[in-house]
Write a structure and sequence with these properties.
Helix content: 55-70%
Order of helices and strands: HHHHHHHHHHHHHHHHHHHEHEEHEHEEH
Strand content: under 5%
Radius of gyration: 29 Å
Shape: elongated
Strand order of the largest sheet: 1-2-3
Structural class: mainly alpha
Distance between the termini: 49 Å
Length: 601
């Protein structure tokens, strides 16, 4: 252990070399400060994206680069479970915090934690996800790197003591830079942030996002090269294929619905196994079997996706135990259909079993498979000759638009990472139809579904978003003078004399709220001393039109105000004990202040 003196010297050194050089920015004009900090956050997010990709490649090469292909499936059977166990141990005993579902955690930080993210998230998600994916966990690296980038932005802002509004902008700059850096797609980074994270935006906020995304992309170019993430062999767009793209859009919408609901249901069921090591053993065994039978489920799956985009998907099946029967033409689309269905299971087993990863990558894989299956099926049936690589590419956008409910991000991300700008029209068609189909059945994305259930979701509706940010417990007023149920009118008059309020909550001996007395209710008798000892409080009190729990969401509180027409409502805890009062005027005042804080004008 380091001595207190050593720790103090280290803290002072860190402050001197990290925080103090940035303090001068606080005295710069607001826009100048945000521009400079956006570049700094972009540098950090881009570097983190490069490190994550390199770590995954390094671990994968160390594990799979030495053994003979004939042993491939046997090693793939056990590797993912080892990676999940290492990640589980790291999170449980080192981090001691839940770091899964990174994008959802970022949304929660914006909604309920004043955009504050713990400092360990600047590195913990990066390390655990690289181990999970490098060992073959069937998840994506994008959500962890978004969490990492957002943590970088949040902690830079917090170290300078910036406001909630500035902290949120820098958090989003980190997230945008992370997406831009890992995909080398600056436009997609900005759109991802606008569609999924930010709920109130103006032109003054877009500029920092652009700077961060471009900076992160530049860092990625320097260390990873300028090639697009996926090389694709696409045929020119043909107008005659539009009906089939429409069909693909509808298909992607329904596959998105399956993807979202199955993922959430599976993870919730698996999490009911309380012992984390029992949960790991079950998930690791099931995941190993799935990957043994379907090697494309190993790791992120981007190698298999690359084969589909390059026009030779059959090479994906070389190491499969079913290789002998692939000579039958219908076996291949059936095999891929099974892989599509089971990818969701493999991803859920990885996350629920202790691994750390996201749904972003699996969404691209499942979308590419869906597009390929449709094109191959139409081709085998002889209805039309469809370019399979084109449909795989467009299917990626279709599923992303449905699962993430972010059609603009889907369109531009796929165009940027594949160079498929010549397919911009089908990208728009499929993404729009998939998004519309999904919205018929599910109003929330895979990132926001759980937060919507708990009432912690910020939406693009400014009024509702601000109400989400307000906490009932923060608005309780406790300066009301209470009286006891068995007190007399004389006791109440004494309470009136020392109170500045005109409401008097009535409590029993256990502190449970029973009702209230208003000053107007006793005005006619409060000076009649003959009644001071004979009139009991319980004969004067009224029942409250409604009570508010200290844990109630603000939209629920406002509903009670609207239904009762009251201006003050009592707040109680779960046992009915009195906490205080909440007033409409206090809520409106806090609402106006919060609206100024979140406004990005």
């Amino acid at each position: 252990m380091f001595s207190p003196v050593t720790r103090r010297i280290c803290r002072e050194a860190m402050t001197r070399w990290t925080i103090r050089p940035l303090i001068w920015l606080k005295h710069r004009p607001e826009q100048t400060m945000l521009m400079i900090l956006a570049v700094i956050v972009g540098l950090g997010s881009g570097a983190a994206a490069v490190v994550l990709k390199k770590l995954i490649e390094l671990i994968g090469e160390l594990l799979t680069g030495w053994f003979d292909a004939s042993w491939n499936n046997l090693f793939l059977l056990i590797y993912p479970g080892i990676g999940m166990l290492l990640s589980l141990l790291f999170v449980k005993y080192v981090v001691k915090d839940d770091i899964g579902h990174g994008v959802t955690k970022v949304l929660f930080a914006i909604s309920r934690n004043n955009s504050r993210i713990r400092s360990h998230n600047m590195w913990s998600s990066l390390f655990s996800s690289s181990v999970t994916i490098g060992f073959g966990g069937s998840v994506g690296a994008e959500a962890p790197i978004v969490y990492t980038g957002a943590a970088i932005g949040s902690n830079v802002a917090r170290s300078l003591g910036l406001s909630y509004r500035h902290m949120t902008i820098l958090l989003c700059c980190g997230a945008a830079g992370a997406v831009a850096g890992i995909f080398k797609a600056p436009m997609a980074g900005v759109l991802f942030t606008l569609e999924i994270l930010l709920f109130n935006i103006s032109m003054s906020s877009i500029l920092p996002l652009l700077l961060s995304s471009v900076t992160a992309t530049t860092v990625s170019y320097l260390f990873l090269g300028r090639d697009v993430a996926f090389t694709s062999t696409v045929d020119p767009f043909a107008m005659g294929n539009i009906p089939y793209y429409i069909i693909l859009g509808v298909l992607c919408g329904f596959v998105s619905l399956y993807f979202l609901r199955t993922t959430l249901s599976l993870e919730d069921r698996i999490k009911k196994i309380r012992n984390p090591f029992s949960r790991w053993a079950i998930c690791a065994s099931l995941l190993g079997v799935l990957i043994f039978l379907f090697p494309p489920l190993f790791g992120e799956g981007y190698v298999s996706l690359g084969h589909m985009l390059q026009g030779h998907p059959d090479s994906v099946l070389d190491n499969s135990v079913f290789a002998a029967i692939f000579q039958y033409k219908w076996v291949i689309p059936i095999y891929f259909a099974m892989a599509l269905v089971l990818k969701v299971f493999a991803m859920s087993f990885t996350n629920a079993g202790g691994g750390v990863g996201g749904t972003f990558g699996p969404t691209l894989i499942v979308g590419g498979i869906a597009g390929f299956i449709l094109a191959r099926t139409i081709n085998l049936m002889g209805f039309h000759a469809l370019p399979e690589a084109n449909f795989a590419l467009v299917g990626m956008a279709g599923l992303m638009a449905g699962v993430m409910q972010a059609p603009m991000t889907a369109i531009f991300l796929i165009a940027e990472i594949t160079g498929g700008y010549s397919l911009l029209l089908p990208l728009i068609i499929v993404s729009a139809i998939s998004f519309a189909t999904m919205r018929v059945f599910e109003p929330f994305s895979i990132y926001s579904k759980r937060l919507a259930k708990s009432g912690d979701l910020i939406t693009h509706n400014s009024d509702r978003a601000v109400l989400t940010l307000l906490q009932t417990s923060d608005l309780v007023e406790t300066d009301f003078t209470s009286v006891r149920l068995d007190d007399t009118l004389g006791d109440l008059v004494k309470a009136v004399a020392r109170s500045t309020r005109n409401l008097y909550p009535v409590l029993d001996d256990a502190g449970v709220y029973r009702g209230y007395i208003g000053l107007d209710d006793i005005r006619k008798i409060m000076f009649d001393k003959d009644q001071y000892e004979t009139t009991k409080i319980y004969t004067l009190m009224k029942n409250a039109p409604a009570t508010v729990l200290s844990t109630d969401r603000m939209d629920s509180v406002m509903e009670k105000f609207d239904k009762t027409g009251a201006w003050n409502l009592p707040v109680v805890d779960e046992d009915g004990r009195y906490v205080g009062y909440v007033s409409k005027s206090k809520i409106f005042s806090s609402y106006r202040q919060r609206l100024q804080d979140v406004s990005c004008d």
